[in-house]
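ok, trying the design again with the full structure, not the truncated one.
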């Protein structure tokens, strides 16, 4: 095979058949359907395949459901070497999943070198994918709400002209991260089992270009949504880990000024959800508990579920649904 055959876009060798007749771009597209450790193994097939995996447009690093059976140390070393060899090759999609190692990252102590190293490196890998002009970015640190989020992403703005879809599960984000005004192409945003750290204040999400928004089982305060003029679809599920609750019997939460979780550090009691979501054409709002329930072994304790609490207090702004 001539030396030029290993270069991107080079024609296949004369007389080849089967998959060998396909151009490099097609082979790199096919490699994108494989997980990263499987894609790398193709380098031993033939000289032409030696470097194809480095330019694959999809990167899947998955360590969940038995997909990566090595230790934390092996995972860290593998991904570090993988990204070093890929360099800054652009990405259409990057999927990072580490649910197999949720216990290693959840509540790890200072002495847990492997767990702390994994948490640091996952954060590094996330921002590296952003720098590679990724269009679809998925990071799943923990399965659902089984563990309290402790994987902290750097609290800085995501600056990307290319990112169109962002899905995060089981991570902690600060207030600066939640400002997506520098992501003009971002049209799909999903948070599942995440915690928004805003220094005991209500976090704000700014995503003016988002068309589809999913907030699922959020820990802490339910975030206040700033204007989303492009919003068409919204799906919100308030989990039991939300701090937005009311424990007063027969309380009219619409005007309640005593329940925990109202407003923010700036004294704002503006609408949290409904004012922004009133722009959506398709809207689903679900709460896991009844509106008001009496706990059997504490008959005097009343509980208003987080989402209902937010809805009742948002009603003071009389939102008009335009769809």
């Amino acid at each position: 095979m001539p030396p030029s055959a290993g270069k991107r876009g080079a024609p296949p060798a004369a007389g080849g058949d089967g998959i060998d007749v396909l151009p490099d771009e097609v082979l790199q597209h096919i490699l994108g359907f494989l997980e990263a450790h499987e894609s790398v193994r193709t380098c031993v097939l033939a000289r032409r395949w030696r470097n194809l995996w480095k330019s694959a447009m999809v990167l899947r690093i998955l360590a969940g459901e038995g997909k990566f059976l090595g230790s934390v140390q092996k995972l860290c070393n593998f991904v570090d070497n993988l990204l070093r060899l890929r360099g800054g090759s652009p990405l259409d999609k990057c999927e990072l999943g580490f649910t197999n190692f949720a216990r290693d990252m959840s509540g790890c102590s200072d002495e847990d070198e492997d767990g702390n190293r994994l948490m640091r490196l996952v954060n590094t890998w996330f921002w590296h994918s952003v720098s590679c002009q990724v269009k679809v970015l998925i990071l799943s640190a923990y399965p659902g709400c089984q563990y309290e989020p402790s994987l902290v992403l750097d609290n800085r703005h995501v600056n990307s002209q290319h990112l169109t879809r962002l899905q995060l599960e089981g991570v902690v984000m600060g207030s600066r991260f939640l400002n997506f005004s520098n992501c003009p192409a971002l049209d799909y945003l999903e948070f599942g089992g995440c915690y928004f750290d805003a220094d005991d204040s209500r976090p704000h999400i700014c995503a003016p270009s988002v068309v589809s928004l999913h907030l699922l089982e959020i820990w802490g305060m339910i975030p206040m949504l700033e204007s989303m003029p492009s919003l068409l679809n919204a799906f919100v599920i308030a989990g039991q880990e939300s701090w937005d609750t009311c424990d007063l019997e027969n309380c009219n939460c619409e005007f309640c000024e005593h329940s925990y979780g109202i407003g923010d550090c700036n004294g704002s009691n503006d609408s949290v959800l409904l004012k922004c979501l009133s722009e959506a054409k398709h809207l689903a709002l679900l709460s896991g508990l009844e509106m008001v329930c009496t706990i059997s072994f504490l008959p005097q304790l009343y509980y208003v579920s987080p989402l209902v609490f937010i809805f009742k207090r948002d009603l003071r702004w009389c939102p008009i649904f335009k769809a």
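Keeping the full-length input from now on. Helices lie at 24-31, 36-41, 72-86, 102-105, 113-131, 274-277, 306-314.
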